[in-house]
Amino acid sequence: MHLKYESTIREALVDGNKSYHQVTEDICKTIESKPTKLWAIGFWTSVSLLLFGIFCVCWEVYWGTGVWGLNRTIGWGYDITNFVWWIGIGHAGTLISAILLLFRQGWRTGVNRAAEAMTIFAVMCAGQFPIWHMGRVWNGFFVLPYGNTRGPLWPNFVSPLLWDVFAISTYFTVSLLFWYSGLVPDFATLRDRAKTKFRKMAYGFASFGWAGSAKHWQRHEMLSLVLAGLSTPLVLSVHTIVSYDFATSIIPGWHTTIFPPYFVAGAVFSGFAMVQTLLVLTRKVLNLQEYITIGHIEAMNKVIVLTGSIVGVAYLTELFIAFYSGVLWEAEAFRLRVLGPYWWAYWAMMTCNVVSPQLFWFKKLRRNVWFTFFMSIIVNIGMWFERFVIMMTLHRDYLPSSWSYYVPTWPEVGFFLGTFGLFFTCYFLFAKYCPVIAIAEIKFILKTSGQNFKDKMNTIEEKTDEHFMAEQLSHH
Amino acid sequence: MSIKKFAVAAYDDEAVLFPAVKKIRSSGYKIHDVYTPFAVHGLDEALGEKESDLHIAGFIYGITGTSTALGFMSWIFTTDWPQNFGGKPHFPLPAFIPITFELTVLFSAVGMVLTFCYLCQIMPGVKKHIFHPRQTDDKFVLVIEVNDSNAAETEAFLKATGAEETNIQIAESDWWYGRFDKKEDYEIQQQLA
């Protein structure tokens, strides 16, 4: 039995005086009104960035990966850095929607929809990098195991690079299904409110004919629960497998068992930072401060300070082990990270990821929207540098004559900017045409966690336990 | 699956809906369905629905994924095209785990979603009868199948249970691969009866 009561000590998750209908109105408002000028500017800027990215990719495909700044020594540069960075960002959504669902964190309800959307778009961006890094991309289908005319020669199933193919495509598919199954009832709400013929048709199509039958809701709940259970190990496995790309190699500085947990913590860290960046803006622009409250922002900042500290501990452990192991190569790799030609990247990483998030121990700063926004950018810069530092471990190998220094060229930078274009184009479309907040889920928690309902709870707090239980039982 | 007549009651709050469901069921009426804007916990129980078995389907799909991945990779590495990767064994079970896990999750998730869509009869392009335009917004809509003789009486009873609005509708009762009856068919049936 579900008790419709939550202690008044807990902060309300939905502020203001809301009824079920008001929730629908508030969230559907932006979808049903004309796009604003601000939206149009943002959207078309993203589209042009995307087009520039497409141009840079075409340039690379035409001339070959030689137009990138890679060389014999540094075979993985900007592209794999960006791949790991985007895939890391893509971890927050499923963490919020799956792991926090299993942990029964009510505050996930306000942010899960946008965070999951962000996940899907980030994974789409991440996927671009290994694909175009293939160089002869028209042979890209060679990674798929199918009966072919080459033997049949199968892909190497024990290579972490192939595990990546499976992990990322599975992650994308499952995240998409999870996200969309939650969207179906909300699209039905939009369909039943639609005034124009086109909107009726579009949302009718998107809502799959959902009507909200009690039995269907029961199955829907079961589906969400099991998908959450599946996604929880999945989200941990994906970045673990990405870290295997490095950890299973024999490069000093990469060949470490600390990589999987440290990558996962880093992924959650950067993912939450990206969620903050997007939601601080979204709640302001779409006027959703009552649904994405300061309490939500604070909760996510707490996750950031926790994962930031885990990442910090991992960095220091790496340094210590490099020294303590007595392996000359390992020690040299880390000396070069800290003091070598790429020292600036290492210290940028340390400052952004380890030092600055510690400011979130102060409650005032955790609850400050603009400071949060600023920090979210800093964290993502730091996490980008983390991946860059790891990649640049390659710059000195065993043979001094092949020591090298890597600088990205314009098609590489353009490609990276292009993925921002892709990401924000998708996000702008999502924010305009889909419910940014899960309408049905907010309604589900409204009576336990809504401000106006919580205010009425004071009378319940004064009752005895026996009286309260008897009352609850008689309701059902 | 066919066109039928329904008494429809819309409630404003689940706190009114629950006692109403209890009263309706104990009075001997058979509830066709209740449509709610969100998942109301305990409603399935109150309606006497048994728990969903969707998770069992998910488990079976998952096992299928596991065995597909393991079987396929083992067959390739030991029988179809054994290759030597740096002198490593031909049956490296630990190295099969990542792909096996991913395929388990993939099969289970995709299979469950498809099964869910099939069981609920939802897919793009499907149009179901919406008894109340706000049943996906803020109304809790309870529907009972009636015939010409008990329609008025049922509607009055529903009104007495605390329903905000009540009415009688003629609608396709459920969607199963498309519409079966047309409205005219219902009228012919009624005339024959």
What would you say this structure looks like, in words?
The complex is a heterodimer of chains A (476) and B (193). Chain A has 476 residues and is mainly α. Chain A has 2 domains: 1-7 and 450-476, no CATH class; 20-138 and 161-446, no CATH class. Chain A has 19 helices and no strands. Chain A has helices at residues 20-32, 37-63, 78-89, 92-102, 108-133, 160-193, 197-206, 214-247, 259-285, 294-324, 328-339, 343-355, 363-366, 369-391, 410-433, 439-449, 451-455, 458-461, 465-475. Chain B has 193 residues and is an alpha+beta fold. Chain B folds into 2 domains: 3-51 and 136-192, Alpha-Beta Plaits; 54-120, no CATH class. Helices cover 48% and strands 15% of the residues of chain B. A 4-stranded antiparallel beta sheet of chain B has the order 2-3-1-4. In chain B, helix 3 (54-80) packs antiparallel against helix 4 (93-120). The mean pLDDT of chain B is 86. At the A-B interface, helix 1, helix 6, helix 7, helix 8 and helix 16 of A face helix 1, strand 2, helix 2, helix 3 and helix 4 of B.
Residue share in helices of chain A?
Answer: 55-70%
Order of helices and strands of chain A: HHHHHHHHHHHHHHHHHHH
Radius of gyration of chain A: 24 Å
Please state how the strands of the largest beta sheet of chain B are arranged side by side: 2-3-1-4
List the uncertain runs of chain A: none
| Highest CATH level, the class of the largest domain in chain B | Alpha Beta
Largest sheet of chain A: none
Structural class estimated from helices and strands of chain B? alpha+beta
User: What is the strand tally of chain A?
Assistant: 0
Count of discrete domains of chain B: 2
- What is the average of the pLDDT values of chain A? 89
- Strand coverage percent of chain B: 15-25%
Look at the structure and give the mean pLDDT of chain B.
Answer: 86
Structural class of chain A: mainly alpha
